[in-house]
Design brief:
The protein is mostly helical. The protein folds into three domains: 29-114, Son of sevenless (SoS) protein Chain: S domain 1 (Son of sevenless (SoS) protein, Chain S, domain 1, Up-down Bundle), CATH 1.20.870; 144-301 and 364-387, Son of Sevenless (SoS) protein, Chain S, domain 2; 319-352, no CATH class. It has 19 helices and two strands.
């Protein structure tokens, strides 16, 4: 037995536990106190400040997590109040708590103001005053009509409405649906789960809209009574797709292209009329990705490309991984020979795959980049209600 263990074995074996503390010299307690203070200064307090910093970023940048979860918000507020009341926390900790509480109150006031602010309908024909913030905004082009006039909802279809205005109104609607999608709806492949209606409501709206738009275009083509009218309908679809291409609306472009590819229509003139869209809508999306990287917003990217990449990372890699070699790594760094003491406990430790999280976050960041710049186009309510 080592000598150091022999020296300590006597007091432990001959003194009761109640009297053992009184036998320890003050120098031992001093070293314990110094070690504890060093632990608090170098490890505990920096980690606590980092946790509070993450909480503030959570509240400031991802408030949507708290909007529909009162329990989560109440737990966070209770934690901040309890931390602020503790006597052993530093002034820096209290400043962090106050900052987070201030951010929460600001977000709450913003939500309340948005909910109670009335919507004012302005006449688009009246120009804004010269000193108004919107006086330097881009001028929205007027609504373009064809054979169907404004208000004649029963006569609205692909042939009676102007293809330019069809492309504009579809683009505006799809941009609103695209812009409403929140990052939390894309985490964990939520749109594929059983509770997808609760976890990804806005994403499902965009998917359902694209599906119904494809069905409507295909039905409009095959329900035409004559071949001549069907060719005209097909030509009109290609004209609308050209408008989508000019407006960088890849969601509408893919929806119309899918309608032309569906088995429910004839393909007599297919290869001649839309060969330029075939390469753009290739299933590998290479041409579309290159086009997306070379243009400036506003645009409506095709969301299926992003969903495929996110699903690939989510299902192909685990977010939480088991670290079976952690004890060996610590042993190699410290040179300690007692490696079998906590090997079982070490094998049960779970680590987070931050590589996977960063990759998914990069995809979501690309999605958000195109949600900020809106289109300078007018919304025509009669077309949106009667046509879509």
């Amino acid at each position: 037995m080592p000598k150091r263990w022999c020296l300590l074995n006597g007091p432990y074996a001959t003194v009761h536990s109640q009297g053992l503390c009184g036998q320890l010299p003050p120098s031992v307690w001093s070293r314990v106190e110094q070690g504890y203070q060093r632990f608090r200064k170098e490890y505990q307090r920096p980690i606590q400040c980092r946790v509070l910093s993450v909480m503030r970023q959570w509240v400031n940048g991802h408030w949507y997590d708290f909007e529909g979860d009162d329990k989560l918000l109440n737990n966070l507020c209770a934690f901040l109040e309890e931390t602020d009341r503790q006597a052993n926390v530093t002034n820096q900790h209290k400043k962090w708590c106050k900052s987070i509480q201030t951010c929460i109150e600001r977000k709450r006031r913003s939500d309340s103001t948005t909910a109670h602010t009335p919507t004012v309908e302005l006449d688009d024909d009246i120009p804004p005053p010269l000193n108004s913030p919107n006086s330097f905004a881009p001028v929205k082009p007027p609504i373009v009509w064809h054979t169907a006039k404004k208000g004649e909802i029963d006569s609205y279809d692909l042939l009676t409405l102007h293809p330019l205005e069809i492309g504009r109104q579809v683009t505006l609607l799809e941009f609103e649906l695209y812009r409403a999608i929140k990052p939390i709806e894309l985490v964990g492949s939520a749109w594929t789960k059983q509770d997808k209606d609760r976890r990804s409501p806005q994403l499902l709206k965009l998917i359902d809209h694209s599906t119904m738009l494809t069905y409507w275009v295909a039905r409009s083509i095959v329900e035409t009574p004559s071949l001549e009218e069907r060719v005209g309908m097909f030509s009109r679809v290609l004209e609308v797709m050209s408008v989508f291409e000019e407006l960088n609306n890849f969601t509408g472009l893919v929806a119309f292209y899918s309608a032309l590819n569906s088995s429910s229509r004839i393909d007599r003139e297919k290869q001649i009329c839309y060969e330029k869209f075939k390469k753009l809508c290739n299933p590998h999306w290479k041409e579309m990705i290159d086009r997306l990287q070379s243009i400036n917003p506003p645009c409506v990217p095709f969301f299926g490309h992003y969903l495929s990449k996110i699903f690939f990372y989510e299902e192909g890699n685990s977010t939480f991984v088991q670290n079976n070699n952690e004890e060996l790594s610590h042993e190699q760094m410290s040179g300690d020979g007692n490696s079998g003491v906590n090997s079982n406990a070490s094998n049960r430790k779970i680590l987070v795959s931050f590589v996977k999280c960063r990759r998914i976050a990069a995809i979501i960041s690309d999605i958000q980049m195109y949600q900020n710049q809106p289109y300078a186009l007018q919304v025509e309510p009669s077309i949106r209600v009667g046509f879509f």
